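Let's do one together. I've listed all components of the complex below, 826 residues spread over three lines.
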Amino acid sequence: MALISFVNVSYTYLKDTPLEKEALDSIYLDIEKGERVGIIGKTGSGKSTLIQLMGGLIYPTLGDVFIKGKNIKNWSSKELCKVIGIVFQYPEYQFFAETVFEEVAFGPHNIGIPEGKLEDCVKSALEAVGLSFYEIRDRSPFHLSGGEKRRLAIASILAMEPEVLVLDEPTANLDPKGKSEIMSYIDKWITKNERTLILVSHDLDEVIRLVTRVVVLKNGQIIFDGPSEKLFINYEKIEEAGLDIPEIVKIRKILLEKGYPVEGAFTIHEIVERILAYKGYTALWKC
Amino acid sequence: MEVLKAFPLGQYIPSNSFLHKLDAKAKIIASFWLILFIFLLRLNLSYLFILLLILLGIYISSIPFKYFLKSLKPVYFLILFTLIIHLFFGEEGGKVFWRFGIIRITELGIKMAIFMSLRLIFIVMITSLLTLTTSVLELAQALEDLLKPLAILKFPVHEFSMMMTIAIRFVPTLLDETDKIIKAQKARGAEFGKGSIVNQAKSLLPIIIPLFINAFRRANELAEAMESRCYRGAQGRTRYRNSYWSLKESLFITFIFCYSVLLLIMF
Amino acid sequence: MIEVKGVNYTYQPGTIQEKVALRNINLEIPSPSFLCIVGANGSGKSTFARLINGLLIPQVGDVIVDGINTKDEDKLWEIRKNVGLVFQNPDNQIVGMTVEEDIAFGCENLGLPPKEIEERIEFALKAVGMEEYRKYPPYLLSGGQKQRVAIAGVLAMLPKYIVLDEPTTMLDPKGRKEIMEIIKNLYEKEKKTIILITHHMEEAIWAERIIVFFKGEIVAQGNPKEIFSKDELLELWGLNLPLTTRISKCLYERGFNLPHPLLSPEELALWL
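Okay, and this is what the predicted structure of the assembly comes out as:
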């Protein structure tokens, strides 16, 4: 069985009240170990319900969620934390500790990592997001810059060394530099530790850099599930989900209409090369 | 999160009935008067007329009766308790139906049991009529108007009502935030409500501290936004929703008043 | 016109946490115009927004709005009436319990008669396309809708200048688009002077003039074409060019016949 498995899962908020609202409707989803999955959809499409179900923070109204083949209802919350690490949106708003060390050590301590090992955990987690352990360990988490706070918040989950890292809009509210930094730290950590990545976002541009498979949600249903490249070709699915078509897809569309051979080209560099080759320019220098 | 978002504030059910359109001040005065009056009434047939008045109110409010029954739910126990106390431990008086030690059922006891529980039911019904037909906003503003005379005594009426408005406005936001923080800390392996009382209290810190810090941050930002929009207290300020006390409101109050005084005289 | 003359601003001066936010800022903002201020987080752009309507007062230099210095405390309210400020977090700037109550808030502070407030609410709701939501409480609105309410609340005060401090950062793409459309409208139809603060370069395309802030100083200014051609510098300043611009730059450098920079895919299409 897959690492994470949703079998016919539905979730309804406020069931049996006049305000009843279906957030997820008959979801089937399997995520294998080592996969990198992007989950996209607009606000209210059910993305955050999906990840709360994965983390056992809520239970399905109908159907079952299995983690490593065991029904999520039978997992103890501490054991589950070791498998699924969720970084929620704006995670820096959950800071409470006096020092950076305490903040990062909170999770590992809770899941029973022995005191002697805590320092190593904290140190490697901070380093994974480019923060210097010795410089920062005794500082207040509240006095860091915006980008540093976000990285610290991510480190506080990495410190638990979860098998699956789930991130909900990890770059929201950051500037372009902060965004690309966070993305490359996540990429490195996942690659180095061979973990599974689930990246939730409404910005496809951001997701595609890190994932190989994309799940598109709309009104609580999965309307696309497949490799990212396939989604680029079926971009009407992106429109159907009410999301912005990434600029790269728009450009590819224009080029295709004009007869440029851009099949299989997804980066700026590849696209430029195709245009030049088509127009018969020789490669003078690289840009 | 969505769960909390979906809950409407207060019990207000929008409609266009006479009671809905009535100025909130008139409704507050009438409700207070009636509640006071119920305590003044002797226990007799006059209760029937109060019941009639309330039923009339419910009818013209165009709100389904089930909402009024629902509003009784939290006080079921209280009503039951009142009923039992008066029924079995009521005063001596009239015919005695049954007696066992200090437990007794008397004629007066039965009477008291009925009237006392009716009193409770009436009070709940009247307040429900007020809150089901008046939004929290209208209530807060009406209270500000009614409290205005206190300004002479240096009571900060405007600031008080502004505080109330903002507090009510931020209830859903803060509930939402609490839920998010709880889930986020749970995702970090936190457990709540386990172990000794000291440990339980300690385990709440990861929720309470962020909640407070975020509330201060919000307060700061809100203050900036209010200042940017020229807010400087009651000074030079007008109100968009001015009170619309008209003949309708005066007639309504007169009717309630006459009706109740008439009952007092008749019974 | 807004004149910013030799402004310095330091947070908590004289303490260990002293932090210089702005250094020697000189700027003239004519009216009406559409100005965009771009810069990475911590470049001082939010501080700048707060200086314009007197929420912060510069320690050195002057900010003068239509001839009134923000240091003139007696006339601060006139400045704030004229300079509307929309903040980043839509949740923390809505005071009212319903949309109309919130829009009325600023007008009430100006001491307007109820009848006029009524007219202004209608005007503002229409300008942001929220007529249907008049009686809604804020917690039932989406982020984009809340931000529209915040803009309406400022608009109802009929300011000459509207400063928007990263109004789209906390919104989803749909909300972002809605807000950008409204901002364009405010400039084109309502003839407001717009000062848009952002770190999304795509949003700066619509501006007449772009000012780049970096570490508390103005490092570049010019029209979008001029600014977008400084691609390497922009990266240094922590900003990202739209993909189209990056592609057009590559093509241009390789001798392809097209002007650099191109700003939108549609524009690129014309040259291929």
